[in-house]
Each structure stands twice: as structure tokens, then as C-alpha cells.
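Example 3.2
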Amino acid sequence: MSKKFLKDDDEMLELESPEDVSGDFEGTGYSRDKKYRNLPLVVIAGRPNVGKSTLFNRLLHRRRAITDPTPGVTRDPIQETAFINGYPVDLMDTGGFKLDRAAGTMEAVMDELVVEQSLRALEKADVILLLLDAGLITGEDEEFITLLRPYWKKVIAAVNKTEGGRLEEEAWNYMRFGFESLLLISAEHGDRISELKEQLISRLDFSKVEEDEGGEPVRIAIMGKPNTGKSTLANRLTHTEASIVCDYAGTTRDVVEGNFVYNGRNFQVLDTAGIRRKARVKENIEYYSVNRAIKTLNRAEVVFLLIDAQEGLAEQDKKIAALAHDRGCGVIFALNKWDTQEQGRKALRKAEENIRIMFGHMGYAPVIAISALEGKGMQELLNTALEMQAQLHRKIDTATLNLALKDWVAAYPPPASRTAHFKMRYMVQTSSNPVRFLIFASRPEVVSDSYLAYIKNKIRSDLGFDKIPVMLELKASRKKWEDREKF
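Structure, written as C-alpha cells:
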């Protein structure tokens, strides 16, 4: 069987068959290009450090979950649509079941929350993929297997880290727990993954799967410093408890995805790790968490930049906003925990003034006061996000653009001096989402920043891009609009 490769930003992943990268899956009736709903849910579960995230990435064919030898890296359940042998499934990676906890510590509180999330996932699962380690059977294994007894009919057991026959004899000791069968696999090396896939598909029911006709979702990234309420907001919007909420800074590590429908539109929300200053990021795991959060901007259309109303603005907020602006994302400054502040228009106006001072170049970005905990401000937040998404996808035809450009230049002509004089020939929109325009000018090198700012502001105010960043580029041309070749 031939092999193909997909390159990810973090690693190269080997694929097991050509169907894994094709748009259509022969014989299944499904296409990778389409969205589906009512998918069967496969939950990967087990104790810490057995390789759950590695297997999740292997089945997904890209590095989505953070993998690290440190036990307990995965906290929030991570759910993605995976195509297994051509069939779409919801695949979930869960935090490890940890029995040994240092009582009275914050880490013990986190471990308890992770276990609660994992057990909640088991109830929803159509198939539970129990991953075990080929080494010694531990008390955590035995305790977790006992907890699985009510779900025994939907359990598939696999022993990981048996590459090349390693520890196979010891691995078979797990049969004493009464498993119908046991698969010996290697998530890292791909050993017997094809058999695992076949067994998974044979246990799933695809009769309820439907194509999602709701169109492409509005993609929202929730970003900000640690402890600003990002996970609380994500859970509020999705009406779930998918993200762990805790006062412990750094609770969220992976990007947690969720979906919901508002006003007939599909939304996808991406809950990211809190972004701290680089000097304060000391652990490898936090480094990868922050890196993933920043990369989320490449997938997002609108960013909810959460600012803690109790603590106010910080320099780090400025850096996050700059990253979003540079990528052309819409940004909403969401003043969270507003329920703890003095209410009224005067207080909000003062807070907005502070934001405008710090983010002077982002006067277009809306400021909305919310309370993720109490659910206040959600309607305004989502209505504004819909407006911004529509603006991000707006396209202006070239004829309309150049009529507008002519009016703008007439209202505010370029300098008349010989050294600073230039002519605006014509303008085209080169892309949407992000929104980019290209102006052809006779002498682009002498066009001042202030004149470009004027044109950019006119694009926003006159053409309906008042809530999003607009990118403007200049290029030399001696041809007039009427004489140009078609762009």
C-alpha cells in the first residue's frame, strides 16, 4: 500500500493509505470537503502517560494535541472530526485518570476536575477506546477499569507501546480483566493501527449522520491573559462544560473547540491558553500551549480579546491585539467580569477611553462589557461578531472602488509640490478575510502615511468596513484606470 505525507507546522505525519488525504472516500458516501452532524463519538481514555494524545494525533493525521512525557499534560477534553477508513467520527482525547494525588494542593484540585471531565465524556461516548501501557499494571489501571464496567459493551481495549513485539507477553496480562479481545499497538510507530481502525468502524453506527447545511461557521478565538475568564465564556457560549474552569492560572493547555448555533448561524469557538510574557513562560508545556494559542489566529476570523475588568489593561493585551490585527482578524475588546464593577454608561465610557488610549491604531474595534459568569452581554457580543464576519467576507467590485477613490482624491487632493506630488491611478480589492486593497500610484514612495491613513479611513467609513482591520498596499503604475489591463 502506497504511503503519503502531510506536513504540519510541528511535525511530519505518515499516513497509512491514499484515502486519508483524498477529498472523497470511495465506497463510504462521505467527502472530506463537507461538514457532518450527529457523528458517533469515540473517546480515548486511560491513565496518564499511556500515549492517548499520541494516538489521538495519529488517528487525526495531524499534531493537534500536545504530547509530552510529563504526566497530566492533557486537561480539557479535545474533540475533532477525524476520518477513519473514510468515515467521519467525533474523536475525543481526554485527560488521564490519576489516582495518586497530593492532598491539599492546587494540582490535586486540577486532577479531580480532569477526572470529572473524563468520566463525563465516557457517558456520552459511543465507543470508549481504553488505552493501556505495555508495562506493569498499576492501581490506576485497575481502578479505572472498575469505573468502566457500566460501559463495558462499548469498550475497545488496546495496549500501547508494543512496537516490534516489545513487552507483548506482559501486555497479555490485561486479559484477566475480562476483555473480549486485546489489540497490541504502537501509537507512535503506527503498529497495528489499521486493525484498530477496522475494529472501531465495525462498532459504530453511521445511520444518523447527516450533512450539515448550515454553511461555514463563524470562527471565534477567545484570547487573553491567564484567568480572564476565557473558559467560562467558552462554556457559556457552547452551553457545555467542555473547558475546565478554575482559578489556577494555566488551566487550559490545548486549544479547546466547541460549536453552537445562534440566529441560525453556526459558530465555532476556540478556547485558548492564557498568553503570558515570554519571560514568564518557563515550562515546555506552557511554551507549546502559548504557541498553539497564537497559531489559532490563523484559523480564526474574529477574536474575543478578554480583558479582566477588575485588573484593567496590561502590556500583554497590546501584544495579543497586535498579533490579531496583523493577521487581519476582527477584534472585539470584551471587558469581562463587568458585573463586579460600577455600572452605568459613564463607567463604560471611561473604560473604553482607556482602551482607545492603549490601542490607538485600533479605533475600529468594538468594546463590549460582558459577564461570562452571569451571561450578560452575550447577545451584543455575538451580533457584533456576525457583523464583523460579514465585513471580513465583503467584496467590492473594482468599478465601484475607483469611483469612490476618485471622490476621495477630489475631496482631499495629494500635495501639489513637485517633490511630494503623486497620482492615485486606480485601486483593486485583492482579498477578503483578511481584507486587502492594492492602490496603483504614480510615485508610491512619496505617498505619506497620513494620506494612506486617510484612504484607509474612507474605505472603512464609505464601503462598510468600519469594524475590521483593512490592509492597504501601494504599487507603482503609470497607467490610468481606463487604460489598464484587466487585473
